Amino acid sequence: MRDAISLLDQLASAGKPVTLEMAQSVLGTATSQAVLDLVEAIIAQQSAEGLDILHRTLDAGSDPRQFARQIVDYLRSLLLVSMGNAAQVDATVEVRAQMARHSQALPASELLRLIQAFNQAASDGRGSWQPALPLEMAFVEALTAPSEPAVPTPAPARAAPPPARSTAQAARPAKAAPPPDEETEEAPAEELAPEDASANQRLEENWRKLLGAVRHANPQVYGLLNSSRSHLIKGSVLILGYPSDILKTQVEKSHNLEVIQAAIKEVLGLDVTVRCYVASGKRSTPPPDVDSDGMVAAALRDLGGEIVDVQ
User: Fold this and answer.
1) How far is CA 177 from CA 164, 181, 184, in A?
2) Coil, helix or strand for 61?
C-alpha cells in the first residue's frame, strides 16, 4: 500500500488529470520509443544501431529485465495484430500505426522466435553476473536468421519393403536416436499414385517460389504457410502439418485458404483444397491420411514421435 500511495503521489504531483498514458509512463509499462526503435533495428538488420539503443536505454537507468518484458509485451501485441486480433491490444493511435507496419514486416513464425528469445532474457537477467548480457544475446539471436531446413535425401530402395498402410514416416523420440551406423526404421508406407508423386516432386522443387507468391499476395499468410512442418499433395488435396492448433486454426480461415490455393494454381497449375492437422507435440494428432490404428498413429500419440519426412 505504501508503494501504491507513493505512485499516486507522483501522478497527482503533475497537476493534470490522471490518464492511462500518464500512469503507464510513471509505472514504466508504456511502449517506449526505445522498444519501437529496437524493433526497427531488428527489421532493418542494423546490429550496431540496435546495440546502441540497448546501451543508451540501460545507461539511462532502465532495468534490463523490465526492458526485456516491455519488448516481449510489444512483440506479443504484434502477434495479436498479425493474427487479426488487434481489438485485444491496448495502445495509443500512434503506437497502433507502428504496430500495423511492424506486423507486416514480421511474419507470425518470426514473431514467435523473437518472443522466445527476449522472454528468455527477461527470465535470465536476475541470475546473470552481467545483467545486460541476456538482453544483448537475445538481440543478436533476433538478427540471426533461422537456418533453412535441409532437403531430405531419398532413401535407397529396399529389396523387401514391409506391408503398405500409410504414406507417413514416423520419427523416433530424440533421446532414443539410433547410432550413426544403425539403419533408421521406417513406418509401413504405401506407394503414392504416379500423378501424386509427380505433383509432390513439383511441389518440393517450387516450394520457395510458392512461398514467394503467397508473400507477394499476403505477408501474413506467407508467415502461416512458412510455419508448416510438412506438406503433401494427395489427389486434389494439399495436406499441411502445423506445430500448434493455434496456427492450424488461423490457416483454416477461408480468406487464408483462398490465398494459398490461388498461389498453388499460379505456380503449379493445380486446383487443390487445403487440409491441416497438428503435426507435433507430446501426443500429436495423426494426419488425415494415416491409419488411426496403425504404427505411425501409435508412435505419434503414445511415444512422442514426429513426422519428419514423407516418401
Assistant:
1) 24, 11, 9
2) coil
Task: Return the CATH number of the domain spanning residue range 16-143.
Answer: 1.20.272.10
Rounded to 5 degrees, φ, ψ at 256 are: -75, -40
What residue has cell string 533461422?
A: 146
**Residue segments in the chain with a per-residue pLDDT below the cut of 50:** 147-153, 155-157, 159-160, 163-190, 281-284
* DSSP tag of 174: G
The residue ranges of every structural domain in the chain are 16-143, 168-179+186-310
Q: Which residue has the cell 511415444?
A: 303
Query: Under a CB-based contact definition with an 8 Å cutoff, are residues 128 and 120 in contact?
Result: no
The fold of 168-179+186-310 is: GMP Synthetase; Chain A, domain 3 (3.30.300)
183 CB burial (10 A radius; 0-12, 13-18, 19+):
exposed
Cα–Cα separations (whole angstroms), residue 297 to 28, 152, 229, 245, 291: 49, 22, 17, 18, 7
71-89 burial, b at 16+ Cβ within 10 Å, e below that, comes to bbebbebbbbbbbeeeeeb
The 10 Å Cβ neighbour count of residue 208 is 10
Q: What 3-state class would DSSP assign to 157?
A: coil
Q: What is the largest CA-CA distance in the chain?
A: 86
Tens-place pLDDT, residues 227-281: 788 888 888 899 988 877 777 888 888 888 999 999 999 998 889 899 888 865 4
Dihedral sign from CA coordinates of 135, 137, 142, 146: negative
| pLDDT tens string 158-178 | 544 554 444 444 444 444 444
CA distance 303 to 107: 32
Chain-centroid distance of CA 97 in Å reads: 23
